Please model this.
Amino acid sequence: VVEVAESGKHIICEKPMATTLEECDDMITATKKAGVKFMIAENHRFLPAHQFMKDIIDRGYIGEVFLGRTYEGAYVSPDEFLNPNSWNFTYDKGGGGVVADQGVHKFTLLNWLLGDVNSAQCWLGKATNSPPNKGEDTAIILLRYKSGAMITVDLSSVTVHLPTNRTELHGTKGTIVEDHSWDNPIRVLSSHPEAEVKGEFYTPIIEHGPFPRYYKISMGYEDAYFVDCILEDKEPEFTPEQAKQGVAVVLLSYLSAKKGTITTMDELMKIYKTTGTKSILEDLESVTQKNYGKMNWK
Model:
């Protein structure tokens, strides 16, 4: 990104933004200095279902969100996890396992919907025959937001079922249930006086293709939006600083796994300002539980 920025070209970069906060800073500094447009390709921000959720929450239709859970399970070939020479899911080149790969989607979305994270507790797991340089294939993260909301994030790339991506949020006036394996991905229950339907679940009609077909929709909107930003000379609404916060929650999760306890964002920021966040990715293998037998299914 730094080299491309120095050449004067606008940049859309695949998520996660980087593996450390310092790398994020280098990218932000370089693109600002060069005066080029810069956006991380976070397709979850452009999913019509997620934009509907954002609108419903901002309108207060489910009240104050206090509880939620989100899950992404996608079967990845064991070849990716068992090949130590493949960069994917490695700590040094890939930035980690499913927490970095899938989790950053969830963290960026939840930050957009709920605000900033205050603290996290994380557990990591993987197959007994997974190479030492490969990250976790399964994780559970408990997040507490500054708003007080408590969210469970479950992630896996080795669950044997069709790709699944779902989120459930409970507020003081209602609930949103989202499941991207459904043809119509949203269910809403609201007691708000201006809600479309009050007191019972209803299913709004939203543009969608069941996971993974929604990639074509979300990435199409994502790319078209970035082109518009260039043509109209406007800054992307999804800023690099927001993408950096998603990386921060990835690192906070890993830091919690290493400490074996609830860890606050303030603790992460202290490391960021002193020794640097690259150290968080070191020796994560020792805190990753080998929690199931050899991975060999195809």
User: Anything to note?
Assistant: Residues 45 and 109 are 7 Å apart (CA to CA). The longest helix spans residues 240-259. The chain has one domain: 48-213+241-292.
